[in-house]
Amino acid sequence: MIGYIVCGAVACAAVLCMAFSQRLKLRRYDIPTDKLSCGLRIVQISDLHDCRFGKRQERLIGMVRDARPDLIVLTGDIVNDTPELTARRPILSPDHPARELLDGILPLAPVYMVFGNHEDNIAELSELRAELNELGVKLIGGKRVWISVRGQRIGLCGIDDPRFFGQGKQKMSLRERIADDSERTSQSLERWRHELAGLEGQNDGSFSVLLSHRPEEYGLYGGFDLTFSGHAHGGQWRLPPIINGVYAPHQGIFPKHAGGLYKLDKGWHIVSRGLSVRRCPRIFNRPEVCLAVISGDKR
């Protein structure tokens, strides 16, 4: 009898450890395409929210290095909108968690970035932009850039969070955030959708990649070969393989695109479960770095 109790206790402890584990995970997705002649490796980092993984981000940087990226994309909420930012100069001081990450990954591959909703709340955003540009981060919100990776032409597009298309910055209370989460028709969203349509219209037939913080607008992403999003934080709590997320901002209960790889009409959608381990307890939802291996890369 005692043996059964001990075994049960050990089993429960193991399940709890798995459920609340905050160990970093590298999640790989294989993306087929006939538009590229050789393989391409893209690492996605999302929703850092100023969290740290090891001294000077050594565990996070090491995971990115081991993934051997050709390209690194950041899909928003990398810099958190904390009150302390107003007093910091520079914003990304050498001991800032986002700066530590950038110092480690910029030598590994070109880094492209769009902003999320939390960056929109930063009053000193123009200063943040200048600092990121000086470090070598390429900000592509509202842009399409054609880049060459391993001798292949890629159309890389970016669009910042819809809150950048609103009437000025505002700090939202929890109640206001919940109301904003349910909003599906607004002037800012319509302006955002109009800009996204303009980016899609510039496609010249090259393999096209979109960076967009918000995953819930996936119905508009089908014109791109591959879209990277974040924001949903994996739906906070999961019960694989039954429930892939309980709640996500702007998607509500049981979100459809909480985290993972999704097939769209003409392309693919990768939603990172993100890295933040502070804002809400994560259950069966480890912080992750995503790796897209495109066209059957065998390196």
Task: Explain how this protein is built.
This protein is an alpha/beta fold and 299 residues long. Strand 12 and strand 13 (268-271) form a beta hairpin. 43% of the residues are buried. The chain has helices at 2-19, 58-66, 97-105, 117-120, 125-135, 174-181, 187-200, and strands spanning 25-31, 40-45, 71-75, 111-114, 138-139, 143-149, 152-159, 207-212, 226-229, 247-248, 252-253, 260-263, 268-271, 288-294. The chain has a single domain (21-166, 174-294), classed as Purple Acid Phosphatase, chain A, domain 2 (4-Layer Sandwich), CATH 3.60.21.10. Mean pLDDT is 85; it is low at 4-17. The chain has a 6-stranded mixed sheet with strand order 1-14-2-3-4-5, with helices on one face. A 6-stranded mixed sheet has the order 6-7-8-9-13-12, covered by helices on one side. The termini are far apart.
